[in-house]
Write a structure and sequence with these properties.
Helix content: 40-55%
Number of helices: 9
Mean pLDDT: 95
Radius of gyration: 16 Å
Shape: globular
Strand content: 5-15%
Distance between the termini: 11 Å
Bound molecules: BIS(adenosine)-5'-pentaphosphate, magnesium ion, zinc ion
Number of strands: 7
Low-confidence stretches: none
Order of helices and strands: EHEHHHEHEHEEHHEH
Length: about 210
């Protein structure tokens, strides 16, 4: 199963992608998580990506594509994957379509998690992330058992640098301009499905499971 998660920043792509990955035993591949891990480790890629991410801008396609094509080589991708945050531009989507076509394959579903901009800012300001294992929480909607500590791995949680309200506004602008066109792209390929992302986390997941036929 090859799945793409589409949706605005803060729509819940990462939250749902993790649940899908667990259910279907496929890897969850988040380009944002990979960039953040590189920033934390102080790699060259991390240093370059940070310049863009902190401003709410997209990392250039060339860097992103190199990273993701390399990730696909990993044997854990043999049975598919759930992509979260990639593709994010039309050139990235075209590159993915081409790479899969060379292997006689294609994606199964592009799931658009729909959440209006008004809901996004409050979600982001309450988000807490674990940079160690990638888990995401919300101080009101999805709290941890112990405040500030990851339920999964016990590491301390952080507020992401790009979750400041000004930067969130910029990310939403960038989303509408560069990523939203992917909705038409995947509708044109007959791969697009939509879910209402304003529901409770578990309801969103049940809607997705129904679509995936699990
Ligand atoms: P990335 O990490 O992908 O960020 P994003 O797309 O902006 O998405 P988020 O991770 O902010 O939101 P999400 O949809 O995953 O929501 P979440 O589940 O956390 O990318 C960051 C940056 O990296 C980009 O800006 C760019 O610079 C760069 N980048 C990454 N990929 C790139 C690419 N392909 N090309 C170029 N640049 C790239 O949920 C949000 C909050 O809401 C959480 O607190 C969560 O707990 C809560 N929540 C989730 N679901 C619900 C619910 N149903 N009800 C209530 N609260 C909920
Ligand atoms: Mg995410
Ligand atoms: Zn953790």
């Amino acid at each position: 199963m090859k799945i793409i998660m589409l949706g605005a920043p803060g729509a819940g792509k990462g939250t749902q992608a993790k649940k899908i990955a667990d259910q279907f035993q496929i890897p969850h591949i988040s380009t944002g998580d990979i960039f953040r891990a590189n920033i934390k480790e102080g790699t060259e890629l991390g240093r370059k990506a940070k310049e863009y991410m902190d401003q709410g801008l997209l990392v250039p396609d060339s860097l992103t594509l190199e990273l993701i094509m390399d990730r696909f080589q990993n044997p854990d991708c043999a049975n598919g994957y759930v992509l979260d945050g990639f593709p994010r531009t039309i050139p990235q989507a075209e590159a993915l379509t081409e790479a899969l076509k060379e292997q006689g394959e294609s994606i199964d579903f592009a799931i658009d998690v729909e959440v209006p901009d008004e809901n996004i800012i409050s979600r982001m300001s309450g988000r807490r992330a674990c940079l160690a294992c990638g888990a995401t929480y919300h101080i009101v909607h999805i709290p941890t058992k112990k405040e500030g500590v990851c339920d999964r791995c016990g590491e301390g949680l952080v507020l992401r640098e790009d979750d400041k309200p000004e930067t969130v506004k910029k990310r939403l602008d960038v989303y509408h301009e560069q990523t939203q066109p992917l909705i038409d792209y995947y509708a044109g390929q007959k791969k697009l499905v939509r879910v209402d992302g304003t529901q409770e986390m578990e309801e969103v997941f049940q809607a997705i499971v129904k679509i995936l036929g699990a």
